[in-house]
Amino acid sequence: MWIYKLTLIINVICMVLLSQDNSYSELNYLFIPALVLSLFGLVYKFTNIKFFGYMAMFGLVVFLPIGFLGIYSIREAMDKQNKLNFIRKLENDGYSNRKSKDSN
């Protein structure tokens, strides 16, 4: 998830730099809600609830092309969690099958 954190830092720096110019001040109406949605990635990191991961990806879409790095990072973390859940399920199924064969 270090790529995600780097993406957030770059997005904040870009927002601060663009907000300094009055001609770009309207972009803050788009960037601030997108940044708030992007912060849901931190919530996903601790809870592993997919809804928060998808909301973070939705917020990162606004920050093209840097946002793609954040989307990639969150998607990679979600895939890792899915693989871990799949392996746990296989281990649990394998253990219960061996246990039932041993009792027969």
Task: Report a brief summary of the structure.
The chain has 104 residues and is mostly helical. 83% of the residues lie in helices and 0% in strands. The chain has helices at residues 2-19, 28-38, 40-47, 50-60, 66-103.
Question: In words, what does this structure look like?
Answer:
- By secondary structure, this protein is mainly α.
- It has one domain.
- It is 83% helix and 0% strand.
- The chain is built from five helices and no strands.
- Helix 1 (2-19) runs antiparallel to helix 5 and helix 4 (50-60) packs antiparallel against helix 5 (66-103).
- The mean pLDDT is 79.
- Keywords: Membrane, Transmembrane, Transmembrane helix.
- The chain crosses the membrane at residues 27-46, 52-74.
